[in-house]
Amino acid sequence: MDVQLLLALVLGIATIVVLVLRTRLDAFVALLIAALVTGFVAGSPVGETITSITTGFGNTLASIGIVIGLGVAIGKVLEVSGAAASLARVFVRALGQGREHWAMAGTGAVVSIPVFCDSGYVIMNPLARSIARRIKGRYVTLALALGCGMTLTHHLVPPTPGPLGVAGILGADLGGLILAGLVFSLLLLPIVVLYAAWMGPKLESEVSEPVRAAVYAGTAATAPGTGSGAGTVTADDGPPADDPAAQLGTPPPGAGPHRVGAGLASLPLLVPLALIVLNTVTTAIDRNAQGALSPQDEYAPSGIAATMAFIGNPVVALVIGIVLAVYLLLPRWTPRKQVHTWLADAAASAGLIILITGAGGALGQVLRDSGVGTALADAVASISLPSVLVPFLVASLVRLAQGSGTVAMITAASVTAPLVGALGLSPLLAALACCAGSMVFSYFNDSYFWVVTRFTGLEGTAALRGWSGITTAVWAASLPLLLVASLFL
């Protein structure tokens, strides 16, 4: 690999680490400075580096910025209306004590098959917070399990765009990849749960104060996760201490207390998810009918797929979700000014998350445009390795270089497609290797890293130990699964 490009990657990462951990600058500024350093060391013209930064920032926020803002707003209404607490009580009653993180991991894995994990995490995080508030602890465990459960199917199971594109590039059987990806996800799910259960309690004290206050407001005075009763609650406990009924306004004479049932409470979450799922399914069917499975193929939605492409777009789906939340979950006597205040509070809390997520996208774009990812891929492909490791390591190194798992697996598939025959790999095994390799060490240049860690309230080394660690654990656990699969495929 070109030494200059390797140095650009190393110095870019080092810049983020030093600035975040050793200076007064926050992650947003650190990411922008790292992008400038990377472009300069890689030899990119100054003007092109600035263009890459603004393009990466804009492209990232175009896909996730509005979704984050709307998702946080839905979460705020779920919280203040008592809907989130109602859903949490149902989860606790249905699953029993101590198994909530299994439910979060499983829910995340199911949701992320048709929904990009960034959007899915924003939508589902309020439920994790409400359960943590209900059981008086273990928020980090629940948040990590939810986020990484989503990572598994996002990387391994079509019709998520990355695996779908890999199947098209390598000519792998799509049904076979769906089945194999589901099997891998089921086998890796216990790794997610075990790591979250092991690391979560260690990081509970590292949660930032604003997030801690938002999650545990009004619970027991002892620190979450440390008291004798932390992490457990009976299903028949009464309403949580932070019952928001007092904030909803004065009910008219004769009106009963405001209560939100679990079925009604779930609609602002389930309706957007269902619309996004239908969009994904109809698009996949329509693309297959048109023979346009690869992301590079020209495709225009037709028929019902065109309609679902509109209402099932995450932005439109979440607009519907926030309308449902405001008009179904809040009582009619809640003052309009109070609702506006809550939505303004949600927008304020989403602002920094949006900025940092966009800056992560900017750094990833600089790394892509400077050629670091392509250079890494070519270097690995030229090394003599066991055949299944070639696409696996190409995807891993490209992921480390530029942050996007989708770009990493597509790049790995493109690089290794001409080598599949010579390596003696089946297209299905090569596709699995590309998808599994792209899960490694999500960190500063991955926009999803910032979504998860900011919502979870983890910073610095705590974020690396929690989120980067759990994604690397499932990446490492996928390698022996690939080696076993190579005996049969």
Summarize it:
The protein has 489 residues and is mostly helical. It is built from 21 helices and no strands.
Structural topology:
Blueprint: H1 3-22, H2 27-42, H3 46-81, H4 83-95, H5 100-111, H6 117-135, H7 139-156, H8 161-170, H9 174-203, H10 209-216, H11 262-290, H12 304-311, H13 314-329, H14 336-369, H15 372-381, H16 389-402, H17 405-416, H18 420-423, H19 427-437, H20 447-456, H21 460-485
Helix pairs in contact: 1-2, 2-3, 2-14, 3-6, 3-13, 3-14, 4-6, 4-11, 5-6, 5-7, 5-9, 6-7, 6-20, 7-9, 7-21, 8-17, 8-19, 9-21, 11-12, 11-13, 14-20, 15-16, 15-17, 16-17, 16-19, 17-19, 19-21
The helicity comes to over 70%
Alpha-carbon distance between the two ends: 32 Å
Shape: globular
Number of helices: 21
User: How many β-strands, per DSSP?
Assistant: 0
Spans of at least 5 consecutive residues whose pLDDT stays below 50 are 220-244
Structure description:
- There is one protein chain.
- This protein has 21 helices and no strands.
- The chain is mainly α and 489 residues long.
- Residues 220-244 have low confidence and may be disordered.
- It has helices at 3-22, 27-42, 46-81, 83-95, 100-111, 117-135, 139-156, 161-170, 174-203, 209-216, 262-290, 304-311, 314-329, 336-369, 372-381, 389-402, 405-416, 420-423, 427-437, 447-456, 460-485.
- The radius of gyration is 23 Å and the shape is globular.
Question: What distinguishing features does this structure have?
Answer:
489 residues; 73% helix
